[in-house]
Amino acid sequence: MVMWVFGYGSLIWKAGFNYDDRLVGFIKGYRRVFYQGSTDHRGTPEYPGRTVTLEPAPREWGVAYKIAGKEDKETALTYLEVREKQYDKKTYVDFFTDSMALAPAVSGVMVYIASPDRKLNPNYLGPALLEEIARQIIHAEGPSGPNKDYLFQLEKALLQFGCEDKHVIELANEVRRILAEGEEGD
Q: N or C, which end of the chain is more exposed by having fewer CB within 10 Å?
C-alpha cells in the first residue's frame, strides 16, 4: 500500500525524502495562512518565525507525494514526524488535480496541520495585521535560515505551478516594501 503526503509549505520545494511521484493539485476545505510559529526551523523560542498552516476555506493548492516502497515510507514518516513536530494535527484528505473533477485523483492523503488550540499547539501565533506578520518574518531566523527566505521560496514555488495565493503574494510584497524602504527596525 502506498502513502501520499500533501505539502502546502516548504514541502512544496523541499520534500526531504524519497518519493515515487509528485502531483500538483489541491485539497478542499482549507486555505494556507502564516499563523504558525516556528521556533525550530525559521525562528527561535525568543523570536519565533512564521510558517504556514491551514484553516477552513474552500480549497488550497499544493503538491502530493507518492511514496511506495516500505523502507521509503518508514524513512519519510520518521523524517516528517521530526520536521513537522510543531504541527499538532495529522489528518487525511482527498486530493484533486482538476478543478472540474467530481472525484479526487487520490484519497487518503496525509497532511500535517497546526491547530489554533493553544493548549495543544503552544506555537500557534494566529492572525495579525499584514504589516505585523511581515515585520516578524523579516526579523526571524532559525536553523533552517531566514524566515523571509521561506516566504519568498513558497511564493516562487506556488507561482511556478500557476497558483497565485493572495495571502502569500500580499505578504511577500509587504516584506519587500518594508525592506526597500529600510523600515525593518520599526
A: N
